[in-house]
């Protein structure tokens, strides 16, 4: 919303901008830990700085102790304690609400357009807006934008996004409240990917001289004006220096940020925050957790800015953001949030705000009901290793000699999707439509599995055996290795040959796992509140899968972690499917819910698939939509690829083409290529580095021109925009990663 400050009112009366800036700086309290030393006595060279002890040599472990906790509490959601960082009228830190922010997409030099967009963002509810600053022209424009906003009564803080330009960063610090620097290119210049070889850590450390030289003047300026700073490391744009020494790893991201923090701290400047962004939510989560753990070890308390970079658009972009951001907020980590979507910035507010609301509803230190749910989870010891990612792989169905059907397709090694269906969907009239909704291909009316077909279906109410059409539809799915999961009591009334009998764990124990007539396997429901003596029976029962749906009144996150801890400790390798129920009618809300609730477990490597069930009288989403959403979750969690993965930057003032329109065209042309990752980058800042592990890159370089990449190598230069999508398709074909869209899919797309 528009906010009036004393300074904004001064602006209205006609004071010049220089006086406004001076007044703004003068109104602010001095930062914490104000030095009693004169500037001349502070370190001025790399040799004078007290650097964080080396991690690679083991010196840090020796001096600071082993890496320990990464969050306040493992068994409940409590916000990590941080210092307060001031940024104009807002404050970051654990004593303050989560800050919602976005980034302008206008050309910063277009002052009026930029002001209009920033005001729309402020009116929407954002607390801060970041703007692009490529050079002196944009820095001067920032001063005009800031002055113009003050005159209109808007004191929303501005953050200058800086790459490659240390001198310009100093200039723009006069005009804006915050500077974002990227350690990967702030001092290293344009990223060249040339491999550097360091014979020793001493050789690596020698290069700190030019980092210090580039950074110190900006730190001095920010300290003098009490400006905030974000040390924003990106997975895809680590410097060639860091890449060569640490690799393209979360550890490299953290160490890169710590070097720049050491420079800030050497000047007794502490008004900064960190970020560890990546387009891969798993890398992003591991990097933030590792940084938080290092801060605990070092005794630091700087706030964290959370974001998944280049998340994309639509439900996929929201879900990927929810997986990464939601997971960390559930850890109690994070003080400001930006959801990066390939959409206009105003549309980022709803998912950003909703993720913050979900986080606040889970905090035990804010919400007594949340605290009670978390306390209700039975005691367990959390042994997760946040320094390395590993996925628990549940066992897959094994074929037996007496099996009358192939059960091996009931689950998938890379993650399974189970759909809920109803008897009404099984009629003769609906049969072909249902096959399509479940992702089957058909030949002469008979279904067969494809890459994005559900692995199994849950049918809570079984049509009677007298319903020949419904039973035939089920039989045909079973014949192509699709599991049909039916409650055991339904099968006992009217058997279905080769069905999977579903029982609550307690019932399965009471019946000693005995299956109803005709059933081929057992599946069990687990609610997360079982005693260990009950969980111990799972091994004997040997179910084909566990459906995990936590009971009301206990924390889903912590109850699920307890289950996986027990299973890992006792070598129970049964596959666990997260059974998620929802009554929302909003597709964006569904993406945020499932990404936050289920994604936060999958990012720990815990879970073998997902079952999304709509509950309530209204069920607004089609089976097809829920299926595609479920597969999107697995792909976003880097489990199962069923379509092209797009890494798409959210656009900013540097973007050299219409990013939303271009992304839509590329998606339409190449979206049917599972296992292929395409990066769409609006400018050279976000490519090639930000493309990270993409197979192909589409990068704006000059107005109206695009470069194409294979990996991190430019293979086509200066292609006109109107020819570039076709050229990308030809490039994919050249590297034998293309396949044609099947005719029936083309017909569906055309329809």
Compact summary:
The chain is of the alpha/beta class and 751 residues long. It contains 27 helices and 25 strands.
Walkthrough of the structure:
Its EC number is 1.17.7.1. Keywords: 4Fe-4S, Iron, Iron-sulfur, Isoprene biosynthesis, Metal-binding, Oxidoreductase, Signal. Pathway: Isoprenoid biosynthesis; isopentenyl diphosphate biosynthesis via DXP pathway; isopentenyl diphosphate from 1-deoxy-D-xylulose 5-phosphate: step 5/6. By secondary structure, the chain is α/β, with parallel strands linked by helices. The chain has three domains: 58-376, TIM Barrel; 416-637, TIM Barrel; 645-750, Sulfite Reductase Hemoprotein, domain 1 (2-Layer Sandwich). It is 38% helix and 16% strand. An eight-stranded parallel beta sheet has the order 8-7-6-5-4-3-10-9. Strands 11-14-15-16-17-18-19-20 form an eight-stranded parallel barrel. The chain has a five-stranded mixed beta sheet with strand order 21-22-23-24-25, covered by helices on one side. α1 runs antiparallel to α2, α4 (111-124) packs across α5 and α10 packs across α11 (281-298).
